[in-house]
Amino acid sequence: MFLLISLLPVAMAGAYLAVAFALRDRLPDPLAIHFGFSGQADGFMSFSSSVTINAILIAIPALLGVFLSRKIGGNKLATVFGWLTSLMAGSFLAISLWILLLQLDLTSANQATLNANWFLVFLFPTLLILLALLTPPRVIVSDSAVEIRSLKIPLLKLKLSEIVSVGVEKVLPMDFGGWGLRLNASGDLAFISSAGEAVSLQLERRKILIRTNQAEKIRQNIERKIS
Fold first, then answer.
1. Whole-model pTM over 0.90
2. CATH number, domain with residue 156
3. Residue range 128-186, pLDDT digits in tens
4. What residue numbers bound the domain in which 67 lies?
5. What is the predicted pLDDT for the residue at 27?
6. Fewest CB within a 10 Å sphere: which of 29, 132, 174, 188?
7. Residues 6 and 31 in one domain
8. DSSP labels for the chain?
């Protein structure tokens, strides 16, 4: 399921190319690809080069999705990552189509103007994602599982039987390349909203770190459940 979701960007890139070539006779060549602060077009590229580069940018998140599918495996977090990469591609698609359509039936791309306020519409989903990733996660411990949520969105659920050991570690965002939800080359996951103590869940093949101000309390709770 996750792999199919992560490959959605490829389908989006194909849809973009289909629209671009269907409208080619109604578009100027070269196309405007950059707009100044005034909203006036000030950068141009040939039709073929422009649509090819845009299609590649739309499809690139699929590579990230395939990488994550290999590292994370099949669980809820993998599905979240899949939708995130698809949403990223969708934003690229929306912006690329918008810039394409505003040049429809123009005799020259020099006439193209862009109302930058519309970018807020496309940036809103991105800002929402960042908020979710940077909000301190909530750790819910039940008799059978540990669930991690952000903004009430379930990101990961682990069976207690999957946890080999639990501890508390101090984490720094710089150790994982920044804040938010992080994945390193070894497949270790880190939920880092700030520097400080984190619950460390050691699984058979990876480690999961969750930054929380209640790290010791959560560690004791989980340890009681798995002992």
1. no
2. 2.30.29
3. 666 666 777 888 898 888 888 877 777 778 888 888 999 998 988 887 777 777 777 67
4. 2-133
5. 94
6. 174
7. yes
8. -HHHHHTHHHHHHHHHHHHHHHTGGGS-SSEEEEE-TTSBEEEEE-HHHHHHHHHHHHHHHHHHHHHHHHHH-SSHHHHHHHHHHHHHHHHHHHHHHHHHHTTTT-S-GGG-B--GGGHHHHHHHHHHHHHHHHSPPEEEE-SSEEEEEETTEEEEEEEGGG--EEEEEEE-GGGGTSSEEEE-TT--EEEESSSEEEEEEE-SS-EEEEE-TTHHHHHHHHHHHH-
Whether residue 117 is found in the same domain as residue 25: yes
Strand partners, 168: 199
Q: In terms of domains, do 140 and 192 share one?
A: yes
User: Vertex 86, ends 100 and 212: CA angle to 5°?
Assistant: 130
Last residue of a domain, one of 118, 133, 148: 133
